[in-house]
Design goal:
By secondary structure, this protein is an alpha+beta fold. It is 26% helix and 27% strand. The strands form three sheets. Strands 10, 11, 12, 13, 14, 15, 16, 17, 18, 19 and 20 form an eleven-stranded antiparallel β-sheet that branches. Strands 1, 2, 3, 4, 6 and 7 form a six-stranded antiparallel β-sheet that branches. Strand 2 and strand 3 form a beta hairpin. The termini are far apart.
Length: 501
């Protein structure tokens, strides 16, 4: 990695954008007021995302840019060139910092060090770990005038203990109880009991997903010991529902076997990985506003798509200057082809557009380009599926269920080896989840996934991944494709859709 080259590139880019922006007759590529600063900021985000620069350096360059603009406006259009103003801005800022009583310039923190190793996978004293069982059953409940169902998607036993991944069905109220009932009373968590085949009862702790009370986990305390064959979940006085903990049995009615996950090697650079994440962000933004998915809204406006293409060519050049993008990488050409297909003109990518695109990209692009809205609405429901995927780049994922609600599909995963720091890269890329994640349904359509909700824990996170486009209830099986810098994992998994029918 060439950190000096990355910083030099960003500073030269700032001078170039300043010169274009402040010229008497700005060139067409300069954009409107502030466009140059936006490009410098986006490229700075990209170089920070791959570890080539720290945030302090990027902030310094942007501060110099802003000060140079102020000096230029102060002295008028007949003064010295923009490069001189950038140097004057640096000198003015350093002089102000070195005045008596003022702190000096911030010390460079240097390149970011390696991430701390994740905690151990599990505590041996807690019993067996990494056990995932699909369920696909519903537990009815009745309390006063309240009726509903709790949907059991899966059982997971890891080093953090044992839990049931559940989803609340929308409850109904009798007419005489409709008035005066608060939202908190709609989820009767204290009504449920869990016992095992040995007659032992468990203490239950309900935790809700980030931003939603309807997606929950039921933590079992203590964790069931090894050898337990089944659990019974009940909401007295209703009947108990038996959960078979034999993973080989699968959910009732599931006849299609899944495949063992397959792993293939890859050797992506940090720059290639970031460009792939940028491409997928573009595809998902476009697909979410496609008439096929949102017929009630107009297609994504050209100005929004143009904004998402801002600085892509400069990002690529900056990654090359930092030594983080191989000269013969095919990804810039693929990104150029994607921009052409999305009619993004201002990306300034130097590479000629590639002749073809990866199959998942092409599938989602085709979905976006459809002008006929989907006539069949994605029905609400949940599906039982579980799979522990091999580690990618030190990240371990386990799939523990999915559900549809209000036309959206959310896939639930447990993740190890991640840190939730709420870091966003250029154009909204989620740097806390540095993997490419796709599902292909049995009809051949690919669905991209990105995080929309986190339940932070140490060392695991429960994450909801939104699928674009949503997954139809008719889907019998899916193929999972998870990709990182070191390799990719593929796994075929059967689905069993549960209530409501």
């Amino acid at each position: 990695m060439n950190r000096e080259g990355a910083e030099t590139f960003l500073r030269l880019l700032a001078e170039t954008k300043l010169r274009d922006q402040l010229a008497p007759d700005p060139p067409p590529w300069a954009g409107g007021p502030g466009a140059g600063r936006v490009k410098v900021h986006v490229v700075g985000q990209a170089l920070t995302a791959v570890g080539a620069l720290d945030h302090e350096t990027v902030e310094d360059v942007l501060a110099d840019f802003d000060l140079a603009v102020s000096l230029r406006r102060l002295h008028g259009p007949g003064s010295s060139g923009s490069a001189g103003f950038m140097r004057a801005a640096v000198a003015a800022r350093l002089s102000a910092q070195l005045q008596p009583g003022r702190p000096g310039p911030p010390a460079s923190t240097g390149p970011p060090g390696p991430a701390a190793p994740p905690p151990p996978d599990h505590d041996p004293d807690q019993g067996p770990a990494d056990r995932f069982v699909p369920i696909g059953l519903a537990v009815p409940f009745h309390q006063g005038g309240l009726s509903g169902e709790l949907y059991l998607m899966s059982f997971a036993h890891t080093g953090l203990g044992a839990r049931l991944i559940v989803l609340w069905g929308k409850p109904t109220l009798s007419r005489e109880h409709e008035l005066g009932l608060q939202q908190a009373e709609l989820l009767p968590v204290g009504l449920f009991t869990v016992t095992d085949d040995r007659g032992s009862a468990y203490e239950l702790d309900f935790t809700h997903a980030d931003g939603s009370d309807w997606i929950s986990q039921i933590n079992l305390r203590p964790a069931p010991p090894d050898g337990i064959r089944w659990l019974e979940v009940a909401a007295p006085p209703g009947p108990a529902v038996r959960v078979n903990l034999n993973p080989a049995s699968g959910p009732p009615g599931s006849e299609l076997p899944g495949d063992e996950p397959g792993v293939s090697a890859a050797n992506l650079s940090a720059g290639e990985q970031l460009l792939i994440m940028l491409a997928e962000e573009l595809l998902m933004a476009a697909a979410q506003s496609s008439p096929a998915m949102r017929p009630e809204l107009p297609a994504l406006s050209p100005s929004v798509m143009q904004a998402m293409g801002t600085g892509l060519g400069d990002i690529i050049a900056g990654l090359e200057a930092a030594g983080l993008l191989p000269p013969l990488s095919p990804v810039p050409a693929q990104l150029a082809a994607l921009c052409a297909s999305l009619r993004i003109d201002g990306h300034e990518i130097a590479a000629a557009p590639a002749d073809g695109l990866p199959e998942p990209w092409l599938s989602l692009l085709t979905y976006y380009q459809r002008r006929k809205p989907d006539t069949a609405q994605v029905r609400d429901g949940f599906a039982a599926l579980t799979a522990a995927l091999p580690e990618l780049d030190g990240i371990g994922l386990a799939l523990v269920g999915l559900h549809n609600t209000q036309g959206t599909t959310v896939l639930h995963v447990l993740a190890r080896g991640l840190r939730r720091e709420e870091r966003l890269g250029p154009h909204g890329v989620d740097l806390d989840f540095p993997l490419s994640f796709w599902l292909r349904d049995n009809g051949g359509r690919w669905h991209a996934a990105r995080p929309i909700g986190w339940q932070p824990a140490d060392p695991e996170h429960s994450i909801g991944l939104m699928l674009v486009p949503p997954l139809p209830r008719a889907t019998a099986w899916v193929e999972v494709l998870a990709g990182g810098r070191s390799g990719e994992v593929r796994a075929r998994l059967p689905l069993r859709w549960g209530s409501p029918p």
